[in-house]
Design goal:
The complex is a heterodimer. Helix content of chain A is 75%, strand content 1%. Chain A is mainly alpha-helical. The two termini of chain A are 22 Å apart. In chain B, helix 1 packs across helix 3 and helix 12 packs antiparallel against helix 13. In chain B, strands 1-2 form a two-stranded antiparallel ribbon. The chains are: A mainly alpha, B mainly alpha.
Amino acid sequence: MITFATVSDLMPIIPELILTFVAILVLIVDLVGTQTKYRITAAVLSIFGLCIAIVAEIQLFGENYTGFFNTVVADEYSILFEIIYMITGIITIMISWHYIAENKMNFREYYALILFAIIGMMFMTSSTDLLLIFIGLEIMSISSYILVGMMRQSVKSNEAALKYLMLGAFSTGFLLYGISLLYGATASTKLPEIVSHLQEHGVFNNPLTGFGLALLVIGVGFKVAIVPFHMWTPDVYSGAPTPVTAFMSAAAKAAGFAMLIRIFLTGIPYAERWDNLMWLITVLTMTVGNVMALKQISIKRMLAYSSIAHAGYVMVAVVAGSEAAISGIIFYSLAYALMGVGAFGVLSIQSKGRTLETYDDFTGYASQGPKEQVMAFLMSIFMLSLLGLPLTAGFVGKFQIFYAALDAGWVWLTVIAAMNSVISLFYYLRVIVCMYMKDPLDSAVDGNEQPTFSSVFAISGLLGTAIAVLYLGVFPNRFVELAQLSVKTISF
Amino acid sequence: MHQIWLIPAFPLIGCILNGLFGKFFGKRFVSFVGPLAVGFAFLHSLVLFFTMLNTKGHALHETLYTWMETGSLHLSMGFQVDQLSGLFLLIITGVGFLIHVYSIGYMHEEEGYYRYFSYLNLFVFFMLLLVLGDNFMVLFVGWEGVGLCSYLLIGYYFEKKSAADACKKAFIVNRIGDFGFLSAAMLIFITFGTLSFDRVNEAAPDLLVPGGILATLITLFLFLGATGKSAQIPLYVWLPDAMEGPTPVSALIHAATMVTSGLYMLARLSHLFVLAPATMNLIAIIGALTALMAATIAITQTDIKRVLAYSTVSQLGYMFLAMGVGAFGVGIFHVMTHAFFKALLFLCSGAVIHSLHHEQDMQKMGGLKNKLPVTYLTMLIGTIAIAGIPPFAGFFSKDEILWKTWSASHPILWLMGFLTAILTSFYMFRLIFLTFHGESRVDPHTAKHIHESPVSMLAPLAVLAVLSIFGGFFGVPHVLHFLPNGIELYFEGFYAEVPVGHGSVIAEIVLMVMSVAAALIPVWIAWKLYAGNLDQVNKWKAQFKIPYALSWNKYYIDEIYDAAIIQPMKKCSTIVLWKWIDVGIIDRIVHLSGDLARVSGGMLRGLQNGILQQYALIFAMGTVGILWYLFFLPY
């Protein structure tokens, strides 16, 4: 029987529709004129659209709408993740405006592309059909390929975009192949149907299903950059425009994990045979990320490696797989979105006409002027949160994940994760030591600069982020409860 | 509700005000807000302390809010004021307030005055959280927080390389301690399913086998944490170097408060510790060893702050000795008296350093008695107190520790403590005589400018001097009983009971006379050696070369650690990480991928380097590995 989509099908995708509309509007504004005021309009419009979409999401919360033959669901789980992407998007846009102006990359499709990427992430999260998930993933990926190469005149940016595109295409092949194998074995692309088929027939009885699932996990593993599929991360992250790096490290990874959890919730990868494998991958991801981050001289690259380590911490929760662990992942994604974007955001703000990237650039940063002082303070908060100091969001996130892993009986994994977290102290604190406990190098420029409106805009965004990081650290319980609630109601 | 939260809130507000606005509102504003914030906290602590005393036996509890609830784990921002935390509150806020006031004068000319006060307030905030928390979580927040503030303040004079190094050392050593603490917390959570102190203390006798492996393991890890924070063997090495920070910081953090947090934790979990006699013995032995060793180092040091630093390590050893023999209350009593006289001594040494324009070498002091009369008098009081000469504070607490050690039948540990007492009296009076007596060795240029410190610095000295004189009367030993033993009554029923042997009254009196003699005789020796000219000392130095060199060089412990741990680790990382992994494995992969890329032709040749192929290769190898593992590994 053929049925057609009705208006009620649109309910679960209202936020997506709003964002699509706004993104197209931004493109139209782009056509109108090239003066400064239109540039501001594009940024403000995008933020405005994201805010409306967040309000729409909040309205949908608890309603559990489904649509399009149950291929799109608006359960609490996906709504929470989608709000995380949009918050990341808002902060990214706030820091981007300044960066774009300073680096002469005045292409206003930039904002539209960020919105499109978010739309892709939302579909990755909220759909239960592998094809639709794949389409969401590609919308996100293609938008980010372009975003990475947005600094057209920069060789590094171009190189990063090309690398990302090549390897992304490579991984997409794996993903799609996995989906097609699964389809061949189960005659469906819908997760619930695949699950019931596999429960009936087992995973490893038919090599096609096992192969398909493995390839699927590998494809997603590339997006969230787990070892050994992480090789692209440092190059792409350090080559991309800094706000784009911030956006990718936080939102794109969160989306990848949201998708990974949905696949894993089918329960299949928890076959015993997977356990040791996932364990090994998790340990490798944490350790490689942290050890490599230790020896970096560029803070941007250090943060890139540290984002691999953070993906490793999230993987600890994926391995644990309990409800507490998944709610931990949701919280951690939010926490990392805030502190990661915050840290990259500080890097994206120029000081006296210089782009700051290495530890040397940050030497004596705190004593170079009032703006630098504020920035150094914000950076310290983000670093302390990233290293997991109590009373910050990062600590709560790590605590939840480690606790869940311990509770699920993964004692050694937790111990290794805790030791990794100790290693990370050295490179995060080094940033603070550089900023506060050293005199500026001779090359540092003296003199004052007039703060531009765009830099004030960016700094206020970062200030809000820092406050959110502290708030989540001191009063985490409401969000923890929300995350736990959403896990309980997760549906296919 | 008692509004316990207000106590830490005051210093936090002070920290924020000073940090945000201090720079714009100037020094007067900062020197007003900083001490006042701690002063308010002190007043509120006093109120709560007496409220707590009136409800004898009932701790004041207050849950601010639920911090987090996950599964069976319920963590709250819970505070409690009981006998233990009440006493610590008064020490932290009271001594803290005095040191804040002192800092106004001492730090007046420093750059970043507001930053200093902001850090100091923040430190007090975290320290208060540490002692107020009613579960491990809040304790841990404070534990990490005070550590952070301590690094920030050690590295305050960051332009000095030694300060930066000291900061790094403190950081690394403390991480080892934190590892112990976290492991213990994890084990406790697995065993007890809770992180609340009360519930752990209550359930400990039921859930743990006395002397069993688990009890021993948990307490050993906790003790490792304590040795890190409280500077005991083998992790004491950071504390002497921490003296690179400003002197008031040394007084507050590295003498009176933070370094006692390890002891606080031990006392807090006394019911757990008594279940592990092996750990208790170890604590006592480590404590006595640390006390003796640090004292033997202190007798040759010439940097006035270093002498005091080693003296702190030594006194902390006494406290651990007391805990180890099960005399928790006595240990905490010594924490209190030590906070008074050691803070006083540090502040006095700060006053000396201040008036000599940052000269810390005692060989370049001497004869300051007349020029700095108030400092001299107060420092003399502090010295008499620490040397254990009755009726000053140190006598009562130290003598009680020695007596408890003896009566718990640990004669060897007692002997070590007794020797330490002799050495303590000697090196402290050596310090006094070198600094204030004899001929002036101050360089003539500085000598002209020597002046007594401002009132803001002298007033705290006077208050602390009074406390150092009378602070001991809270714990008068039983044999003397001209006053009831306040400390014992105060802590009645609070700690776990330890079967303590009771020595005879005669023995107690004999030992007491001996410790008074042990305090007095070295004064005379030090006077002979150091008050006049130093010929005799120099002769002896030449005669006893080896022991002198050992003590002067701190038994070469830093060098031994460097040779035994740091260098091998460096070598190991060079050989293993660089030679094997980097060169051996990664390079080979790179070469392999290069070959492969050449073989596979010009597919990606247009790119500027060969790395992309390598990435794809590793990706593919990972995939193959995973698939091989899943499907072809026999399972």
